[in-house]
Structure formats: C-alpha cells, structure tokens
Design brief:
The protein has 174 residues and is an alpha+beta fold. It has five helices and five strands; from the N terminus they run H-H-H-H-E-E-E-H-E-E. The strands form two sheets. It has a three-stranded antiparallel sheet, with helices on both faces.
Length: 174
C-alpha cells in the first residue's frame, strides 16, 4: 500500500525525500546534464544510464567528463560502460563508496508506458551494513519496487526474466 501517492511500497523499504539526502550529503550540480550527484558515481544515476544508450562515445557526449569523488569513483568511460553492462544484466545498479566514503547505494530505473526511463528508485546504506549478501537481498527489493512503480505507470515489455533492464529493445506499453 502506498502513502497517498498511488505507488506500492515494499515492506521494510521507506521512501526518502530528496531534501533529506541533500541535507546529509550536499552536492552541487555537476554540469548541464542536470544531475545533482554525478550519475556515474550514484546507483540511481547508473541505473538510469544503463537503461539508455551507454556506449563509451554516448556516455562521453552525455556526461562530458568523469570526476573522482573518492578513490572508488569510476573515472574511465570504458570502466563505466562495463559497469553499465553489468547493471543492465542484473537489473539494478550498485554504488560502493563511489560518491562518498562510508556510503553505498542501490538503484533501479522506473519506466513510463512508452518504455522510457523517467526516474530511479534508490537507497543509501552505510558501508558497514552493506555486505554482499545484504546488498543482493536489498537490490532485489529495490528492483521490485521500481518494477511495481513502472507497472503502475503502464510499463510492460513482455520479458518474464526482468522487465526493467532487459537487453531487449522490446519495451512497449501494456
């Protein structure tokens, strides 16, 4: 059951307002791409990038440059491309201290009825609580939440495997 906004919520996952994140982790816009946090360094950003064209040349044109925010930041377009291929294959994105030390994140894209990525569901977790087994379990919940939101918006692509980040281009309205 949602909280007045029409979107279903998974048990144990609470929504977080963007203003709360901005207060805890202030970030200045990185440029004309409109992202407040560099998309290559956030799970939600990587989820959205993976859902669209993400070859190195397209990424370079879209993002301009990649900045190192921590020693774990992705700073190469080839490395980012490889990460986005992994993200697309598994259906969710991961950030392991790439934006801020001590903070990890998970994200999955939300699609509209036309199959266009329009938002991402994401969560941040202190790195000390982000073991691989926990991350996988939480990632499945984040992906399920994004899938539910996408379906509520009329999204359907016919894939039984993972309708969100399928490598197929058969995204279509239901």
């Amino acid at each position: 059951a949602g909280q007045g906004d029409g979107f279903p919520r998974r048990p144990g996952l609470q929504p977080r307002r963007a203003v709360d994140s901005a207060l805890e982790y202030p970030a200045e816009p990185t440029g004309s791409n409109g992202f407040a946090i560099a998309p290559a360094n956030s799970a939600s950003g990587k989820a959205l990038l993976a859902a669209g064209p993400h070859d190195p040349a397209s990424l370079r044109a879209q993002l301009g440059s990649l900045q190192a925010h921590t020693p774990h930041s992705i700073t190469s377009f080839d490395e980012l491309h490889a990460e986005l291929l992994r993200t697309r294959a598994r259906g969710w994105a991961e950030n392991r201290e790439e934006w801020r030390l001590g903070v990890c994140g998970l994200g999955a894209p939300v699609f509209n009825a036309r199959g266009e990525p329009i938002a991402a569901v994401g969560m941040s977790v202190p790195s000390i609580r982000f073991a691989r087994t926990q991350a996988r379990a939480l990632a499945q919940q984040v992906a399920a939440c994004a899938r539910d939101a996408s379906r509520a918006l009329g999204y359907h692509n016919g894939s039984e495997r993972d309708p969100l980040l399928s490598t197929s281009t058969n995204r279509r309205p239901s």
